[in-house]
Amino acid sequence: MLTITYGKQVEEIVEVSSESSAFVACVATLANAHIGVRPYVPESSARTKRTQLLVRDIYAAGLGVSREIVSLPAPRIIRLYDVDTGERAHQMLDAPTVVLSLDKATVTSTERVRIGSAIYELTVRQFIDAPDVTAASTYIGLCRVGAWKKPHRVRLDFGMDDSALNEYLGASDWLTARHYSIKQSLCDDCDLSLIVETRENRLGYNLRLERSHLAASSAIYWDTNESNCVASITFDFSTTRHQQFSAHWQLKRDSPNPTFACFPSATDPTGIESAHQEKWNILWGDHEVIISSRGSPAELGMKYAVFQLLQHGVGSKINDRGVISPARGLTSTYHSGATFFDTELHKCIFWIWNDPVQAKALIDYRYDFIDEARLFAKANGFAGARYPEASNDMGTENGPHYVLSYPDPEIRREWSVKEVLHISADICYALNKYWAATGDDDYMESRGYQIIVESARFAASAFNWSEHKQAYVLKSVMGPDEYHYHVDNSFFTNYMLRWCIRLALSLVGRCGFPLVPAAEIECWQTLSDSVYLPWMMVQGVSIPEEFEGYASLPDARLRVDKKRGPQFVDEAEREKAEKLQNFNSRLVKQADIVLLMSLFPEHFSEIVKRIAFNYYEPRTVHESSLSYGPHAVVAAHLGDTGTCVDFIQRASRYNLDFTPVVDYSNGLHLSAYAGAWQGLVEGLAGLEIKEGRLSFRPQLPLHWDSCHFTLYFRGQRLKVSILGQGELVVRRGGLKLDTHFNHDASIGLKEEYL
């Protein structure tokens, strides 16, 4: 059973079996900002072992794409068997357990195995140093169960082999690639040092095995060759029932030769784990989200969501260069380690409010590759900087133009690379949000303004004048909704690009803002005043139309009965989505309009938001995990806290509840988790920045007693508690801050506090 715990909170997720092992390993992935490691899962399938270790910035020429993050080998349990007979351990009928402890940031697996006539319990506990050390620890215990008369020797092989592989969308065993090779190594009694090379990088592994006093009589033998480096550890159960040892390993980049590492405190197992726990106690103290709701699934769901976000973000800023945030973090090779617009609209927003240093690192990544964005724009006939839809570690477009839909021989055209044009504006949105929350004028003058100017130039160059409409239009594009491409005047795309241009116009003349020619400024002004936005009438109210002509399409069957996962009503819809076919109905994958209203709630009246939400949500499949967060935010703004909570639960528990467990390799949906946090903080708490000050519109859903979260604003960490409808408490350290009602009935803090 996969079980997730936080203190006294315990929840069972799924039975652990060979079919579910890839799912369990993914959901329980341990990581920090530099490495992600799949933990040991009993009865793992061969496919589970393909993804073992992902390292930040280690990429190679890809399989089906130009670049992909490299699946690397990690030290792990290879075999367990009888020394004298060679008989391997067999899984007992007792179901194995895997426990992910969120507060301790550890994964512990327990299983019973039979080796010959003897029965043993194997316990494996693992963790990764947090937050900035590329090191991991594994504690292994083997206990003989029941009475026995004869002594017995058991051998455990622990080390590395070449089973880690990259795979093309999980399609087939023959659609895999190995991007590394195991090179020279050094070993002695308890230490191994070796080199693993990719085409572009040289990585040094240092592994130390630490035997406890109970295992002092055990022997360790190393077997090293070109395809593996394995330590065979012999446990003698002649006089003892229990044996244990620990393995600690570190990873270094650009290591010239194998050398034994100097581990701290002689790898004192107790000291290492204590230090790890102390770091996580601090992290949880700074970022914990507490929901008191009498057992609602959102309680542990939000803990899980925040845990995974913290794992992958804290400590990512280590120099002046930026950090790429893969769509699936360091949990899977899915999407090849590329980053998409959800980084800016979801993950970056989470970090702006939790640790702006990490948010700045994400924005720095975009600044570092602004020249590549300029070249990408120029190559496609645009000006300024066009950031790619799927951006890789080199800042270039990584999305495929064609996709193989194995096992079918059909090659399908992927249009997002060509037709998605809103990314540059999305980046500016995150940048502007960062500025509002931090007041970091220096950053804007040194980097931020340049991103905005070049993005505005791209936006202006994308539009064309239509004599028929007497407006500027965008033809043949794809918005966030991927069910419709070749569409004209996507409302989301047109609106975001216009907003980007207007943002640049609002900054012209500010200190440090780049000089923009007067003729260009005039062009921007004229264009932004005349961008075409399609609207349609619903219930007598004019609301944004998904794209021009959307309202004339045949209507879709409404999603009335809500269920787990994507809201397909039949297999024909599912197949059409899988084949990347252009939908000819009003069915949408994720409602662009709801996302837009969540980004700019003040730009749309309440009646427009309400009618639009009620119209688009039943026509939305929510096939994308990015769909839930914006729906949670807008539902809360409309006062529908029940619907908001439903979407928060779906977003925070996306991988726990809605994903298939058979042959799962899709990775964790980190942006869905950030969307859940946005639903809570921007939605239920009503967090906004107005004229440089924080304001709140707190709501407490039915059956919730309270909820608590932290914010980082203008250099101060604040703890916020929602205690009821319109009831809010804000603390800084031990000090309770005075609040007041603003003229618009929102709650603000007194000016002297901030």
Structure description:
The strands form ten sheets. Strands 1, 2, 9, 10, 11, 12, 13, 17, 18, 19 and 22 form an eleven-stranded mixed β-sheet that branches. This protein has a five-stranded antiparallel β-sheet with strand order 23-32-33-34-35. The relative contact order is 0.09. The protein has a domain at 2-285: Glycoside hydrolase, family 65, N-terminal domain (Beta-galactosidase, Chain A, domain 5). Helix 3 packs across helix 18 (670-684). Strand 30 (688-690) and strand 31 form a beta hairpin. With 754 residues, it is α+β, with helices and mostly antiparallel strands. Helix content is 29%, strand content 26%. It is globular, with a radius of gyration of 27 Å.
**CATH homologous superfamily of one domain?**
Glycoside hydrolase, family 65, N-terminal domain
* Cα-to-Cα separation, first versus last residue: 48 Å
Number of helices: 18
Q: Average pLDDT across residues? A: 91
CATH topology of one domain: Beta-galactosidase, Chain A, domain 5
Principal-axis shape equals globular
Biggest β-sheet strands, sense, barrel? 11 strands, mixed
Count of individual beta strands: 37
Task: List unreliable stretches of 5+ residues.
Answer: none
Strand content: 25-35%
CATH architecture classification name of one domain: Distorted Sandwich
